[in-house]
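Sample pair:
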Amino acid sequence: MKLSLDEKYFVKSVKNALRILKLFKTRRQELTVTEISKLVALPKSTVHRLLKELVHEGFLIQQEKNGKYQLGFSILGLGGIVKYHTEIFDDAKPILEQFVKQFNLPIHICVMEQHKVTYLMRETGNIPMNLITKTGRQNDLHATAEGLVMLAYKNKSFIENILAKPLTKHTEFTITDINALQKEILQVRSQGFAVAKNTFAVGYSSYAAPIRDYTGEVLYSVAVISKNDFVPLKLEGELIHSIQQIAKEISNLLGYYED
C-alpha cells in the first residue's frame, strides 16, 4: 500500500522528532537549536519547527534564560523514563525522608509543565492520607501553593499570559480574580514561599518553596500537601522554615549557590 505525499511527510516528521528526542541521553543534557541541527543533519528551520511542536506537547522544555532545550516531563507518561528524571533528585531522597519522619507529613517535588503543576516525586512514609498527587498528575498553577511559588518567579509576560486564560474555581476559596492573584503572586515572591488553604480541595492546604537549578532559574518547587487538621497554626512557622531549608539544599544539589 503506497503512502500519499502528506502521509510520507508526516511519517518523516515523526521520525525526525524521535531522532531529536534520542539526542537527550545524558543526565540533564541541554542542547541549542544549532547543536541539534548539526547532530541530526537537518536544516535549522526544520529543527526549529519540530522543536516548537515537541515543546508544545511537553516532550521538551526550552529554558527561558539561555534558549536551550531539555527533556520535558510529559515523557513521564511514556513509561521507563520516570527513573531517568527522578535520578536528578536521587540525592534529595534522604532529605525528604527525614522531613517525613520529623513532621509526619507528605512532601513533594514538582515541576511546571504546559502551564500546569506536574508532580514529579513524593515521599509519604506510612501517612494515612489520600492525596491526588501521583507521579505525572497535573494541577492548576493558580489553585496550588506548589504552582504559585513557581509562577511567582516567571517574567511579567508569562504571568500575564497565564492569568489571561480561564481560571477554574475549584472551591469557594480559589482565587480567580486577576488583581487579587497578581497581589498574591507578588507576596509569594517577596516572602519566598506560598501557602494555599482550601483552594484546590476544601479541607486541604499546601505549603511550598522554590527550587532553583544551576542557572538560578526556578523550575521546580518542594511542597507539603496535607489535611488542614494535620497542620495546627502553631506548627506552620516551623513547617514553612523547614520547607525553605529543604528547597535551598536541593537547589545546592542542582548546582545553585547564593552569592
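The chain has two domains: 5-71, 82-253.
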